[in-house]
Write a structure and sequence with these properties.
The radius of gyration is 18 Å and the shape is globular. The chain has nine helices and four strands, in the order H-H-E-H-H-E-E-E-H-H-H-H-H. It has a single domain, classed as 3-Layer(aba) Sandwich (Collagenase (Catalytic Domain)). The chain is α/β, with parallel strands linked by helices. The termini are close together. The chain has a four-stranded mixed β-sheet with strand order 1-2-4-3. Bound molecules: zinc ion. The site of zinc ion has 4 residues, from helix 5 and helix 8.
């Protein structure tokens, strides 16, 4: 993307937001726009129907005792998955096929997964089980944070990180992903730490998941939010089919 088209897209978004604020439709702060057609599920059965239609398998209540809290947290994840799939055509393409889908997402009540050997972890993706585990006691959108520990520690942010790992398995033969692996080799761990996050500086997988998580943050490209290094952004654009 050239600088000119980038500026045009920022201006277009700014103008659209201004119109919505003037009409009183949007709040003045840069909050994400909810998917217009997302209707929260009211029962566990409805949750799983939606999850299946989005290629997420089932959403399993691991240990949340309050059923309403479970529904609220599960709906947050479903809404986020729906938003990301709608906004990024390549994500939608790889989200689900006849032979491929996530099997389940486990929601834990804690703000950190508390199993043996998992101390401090907020999420996990197990490729052999196509399972995402999420510590779900984190809410509210935040913009991407670059150059620190993680790019986004909200439950929806951790979901996008783990979903990035899931997608990695799907796209590992594509040209765009090959470009990402080349970019990863080209730069040092310190470079990835500075431009993405400490965690992203760990290895190729975490660099990808953290970059994907930052790029698909609902506030990414909003005014005054940090932007990924153009070399990373361009590849993320290609991988996700996003603007
Ligand atoms: Zn990870």
């Amino acid at each position: 993307m050239t600088d000119l088209t980038r500026l045009q897209s920022i201006f277009k978004e700014f103008r659209e937001t201004t119109v919505l604020v003037e009409k009183g439709v949007a709040p003045k702060c840069a909050m994400p726009v909810n998917p217009p057609n997302f209707v929260p599920a009211k029962t566990v059965k409805e949750i799983n129907k939606k999850a299946k239609s989005l290629g997420l398998g089932r959403i399993v209540n691991k240990n949340i005792t309050d059923p309403k809290a479970f529904l609220r947290r599960a709906n947050e994840i479903l809404e986020e998955a729906a938003r990301v799939q709608r906004k990024y055509p390549m994500v939608l393409k790889h989200a689900k096929t006849d032979k491929w889908s996530l099997k389940s997402i486990e929601l834990w009540k804690e703000s950190g997964l508390d199993m043996e050997g998992w101390a401090g972890s907020v999420g996990d993706y197990t490729p052999s089980d196509k399972l995402i585990r999420l510590a779900s006691n984190r809410s509210a959108y935040e913009g991407p944070i670059l150059g620190e520990m993680h790019v986004d520690t909200t439950a929806t942010g951790v979901f996008r990180h783990e979903y990035g790992h899931y997608l990695q398995d799907r796209i590992d033969k594509t040209k765009a992903y090959k470009e990402f692996t080349e970019l990863h080799q080209k730069h040092s761990s310190a470079w990835w730490k500075k431009n993405v996050s400490n965690y992203g500086g760990q290895d190729l997988d975490e660099a990808f998941a953290e970059s994907f998580c930052a790029y698909t943050n609902p506030l990414y490209r909003k005014i005054r939010q940090p932007r990924l290094h153009p070399q990373i952004e361009n590849i993320m654009e290609e991988i996700t089919g996003g603007l």
